[in-house]
């Protein structure tokens, strides 16, 4: 009888995902920019002592941006493999995937503003 969960298969899947995360931050400049922004947000969150709810919202935003960056990178790599030469449709695909990351990054900045600007204003007396 086959067990309900194949632990070894699951462990391999986690390892492959870990390699993907490593490669994302090792080779993709924009992912490193997002990582730096994340570190700054964590520092700000600790400094301003944001609430559990605010942490949850910030963590969701960070995860969404990183996930979008991973999907964008995967789409770009696949597009480059399928069509190494310039193709107008591939350009649209890549630009659209990048637009998805940009939209989420803008959303994350807006959420960061909602969370941190009132705290910064209170600190500086604005």
UniProtKB/TrEMBL annotation:
List the transmembrane segments.
33-50, 96-117
Enumerate the InterPro entries for this protein.
DAGK, DAGK_sf, UDPK
Chloroplast as a keyword of this entry, yes or no, is no
UniProt-recorded Gene Ontology molecular function terms: kinase activity
Entry superkingdom: Bacteria
Keyword Membrane belongs to the record: yes
Question: Any idea which UniProt keywords this protein has?
Answer: ATP-binding, Cell membrane, Kinase, Lipid biosynthesis, Lipid metabolism, Membrane, Nucleotide-binding, Phospholipid biosynthesis, Phospholipid metabolism, Transferase, Transmembrane, Transmembrane helix
**Localization annotation:** Cell membrane
How does the record say this protein sits in the membrane? Multi-pass membrane protein
| Family stated for the protein in its record | Belongs to the bacterial diacylglycerol kinase family.
Protein name, per record:
Diacylglycerol kinase family protein
What is the species listed in this Swiss-Prot or TrEMBL entry? Dyadobacter sandarakinus
């Amino acid at each position: 009888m086959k067990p309900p969960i194949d632990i070894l298969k699951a462990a391999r899947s986690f390892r492959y995902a870990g390699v993907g995360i490593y490669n994302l931050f090792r080779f993709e400049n924009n992912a490193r920019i997002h990582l730096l922004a994340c570190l700054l947000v964590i520092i700000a969150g600790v400094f301003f002592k944001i609430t559990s709810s605010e942490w949850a919202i910030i963590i969701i935003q960070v995860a969404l941006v990183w996930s979008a960056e991973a999907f964008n990178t995967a789409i770009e790599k696949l597009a480059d493999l399928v069509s190494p030469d310039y193709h107008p449709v591939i350009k649209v695909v890549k630009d659209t995937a990048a637009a998805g990351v940009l939209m989420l990054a803008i959303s994350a900045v807006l959420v960061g503003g909602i969370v941190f600007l009132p705290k910064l204003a209170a600190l500086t007396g604005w």
